[in-house]
Design goal:
This protein is of the alpha+beta class and about 120 residues long. The protein has three helices and seven strands.
């Protein structure tokens, strides 16, 4: 599957070791390393959904820290971008989840990873 996510363009808080990053809406200034910056849309070939409760404790801690530092407006924009992407909505629905449970994403090598938090 090949799609473009145009409303999600820059990563706000890139974490080391391939852990997730929160995103800001297009037009905001990036605060991440150069490899995470792009003026073009990211090409997504696959989407995976990860429940943060299933992550190793050290990775889960980083995801939770990143989510705790996000403001509601950033999360609202992220979730709106997800809702506008049918493939992402479908991937979440396949796991019994929805965009309101997504707290972070990571885009790496054409794979969009949605990190969801369940109660």
């Amino acid at each position: 599957m090949l799609m473009r996510i145009s409303t999600v363009s820059v990563i706000v808080a890139a974490l080391s070791l391939g852990t997730p990053a929160l995103v800001q809406a297009q037009g905001e200034q990036p605060k991440s390393p150069p490899q995470a910056q792009s003026d073009q849309s990211a090409e997504i070939r696959a989407i995976q959904v990860v429940n943060i409760n299933e992550l190793k404790p050290e990775v889960r801690s980083k995801v939770e820290d990143a989510a705790a530092n996000a403001n509601e407006d950033d999360l609202r924009k992220l979730r709106s971008a997800i809702d506008a992407t049918p493939e992402a909505v479908s991937a979440l629905k396949d796991k019994g989840l929805n965009s309101s449970q997504v707290v972070a994403i990571n885009i790496s090598n054409g794979v969009l990873t949605l990190f969801a938090k369940t109660a």
